[in-house]
């Protein structure tokens, strides 16, 4: 039992957990960095998925390319304002790669 499960147990609640079907990574970890999103049906079908979850990396591996902003369905999970998105998901939603160097020292 992890910290989230211990906290929720007295209330009779369980933690939402969605493991990637390919690599097993929890796409909704308790400490943030979620990769909980929805892409258009054509993308999901191209990946060979009917239901379940895939992390961004495994979905991209299945479709053979990096996701682009227009691949995502306009639904709550794809909202740019959600604070718990992973850096990788945010970069795919916006089409902007995250900085890899500190601009103060570059």
List keywords for this structure.
106 residues, mainly alpha, 4 helices, globular
SSE string, helices as H and strands as E: HHHH
Characterize the biggest β-sheet.
none
Number of strands: 0
Rg value: 16 Å
- Low-confidence segments, given as residue ranges, are none
SSE-based structural type: mainly alpha
Mean pLDDT, to the nearest integer, reads 85
In total, how many domains does the architecture comprise? 1
Share of helical residues: 25-40%
Give the CA-based shape: globular
Fraction of residues in β-strands:
under 5%
Question: N- to C-terminal separation?
Answer: 43 Å
Q: What is the count of helical runs?
A: 4
Reconstruct the topology from this structure.
Blueprint: H1 3-8, H2 41-46, H3 56-63, H4 87-94
Molecular structure report:
The protein has 106 residues and is mainly α. It has one domain (14-94). It has 4 helices and no strands. It is globular and about 45 Å long. The protein starts with a helix and ends in a 12-residue tail after the last helix.
The gist of it:
This protein is an all-alpha fold.
